[in-house]
Design brief:
It is a single chain. This protein is mainly alpha-helical. It has two domains: 93 residues, no CATH class; 53 residues. It contains six helices and no strands. Helix 2 packs across helix 4 and helix 5 runs antiparallel to helix 6. 10% of the residues are buried.
Length: 147
């Protein structure tokens, strides 16, 4: 496996709870989780726009946009739900519990995506070992919450 991409994945994973914490604080300052999520997305969109311009990324032809299936626009909706849901849930259940549940949800979705080959991923059949790993993670969540 490429070490650069491995480190990148680890670094982005590290940033996720930091982002939740920053966005939760932002929500307190602006008195609204929804407004905080909007500010977060506007700042992110501006950063991405600047990157596209600075790196001179060519835009696809309009025909490419028209030909895309409607469901591919769902990534932005999911991103908004993740950010808003994290802002709402994180301060209520704690960062460790939030990240544990986010990870469990990601693992369940990943097992299903691999098993069925959704979104162009290569098919990797479900196994008892994969389900056991998810169950162990969920058990870990319950131990974390037990206090």
């Amino acid at each position: 496996m490429n070490y650069l991409y491995t480190f990148l994945a680890l670094f982005v994973g590290f940033l996720l709870p930091v982002q939740v914490g920053i966005n939760a604080e932002l929500a307190r300052f602006v008195n609204s989780p929804l407004l905080a999520a909007l500010v977060s997305f506007v700042v992110g969109a501006l950063c991405l726009l600047a990157s596209v311009v600075l790196l001179k990324v060519p835009l696809p032809a309009i025909g490419k946009f028209v030909a895309m299936p409607v469901w591919v626009w769902g990534g932005g909706l999911i991103g908004a739900a993740v950010v808003l849901g994290s802002i709402l849930a994180g301060p209520k259940i704690g960062m460790l519990a939030l990240v544990g549940l986010l990870l469990a949800g990601q693992l369940i979705a990943s097992v299903l995506m691999d098993h069925f080959g959704w979104f162009g991923f290569p098919i990797q059949k479900m196994s008892e070992a994969r389900w056991l790993g998810i169950l162990l993670l969920m058990g870990g969540f319950f131990l974390i919450r037990k206090n």
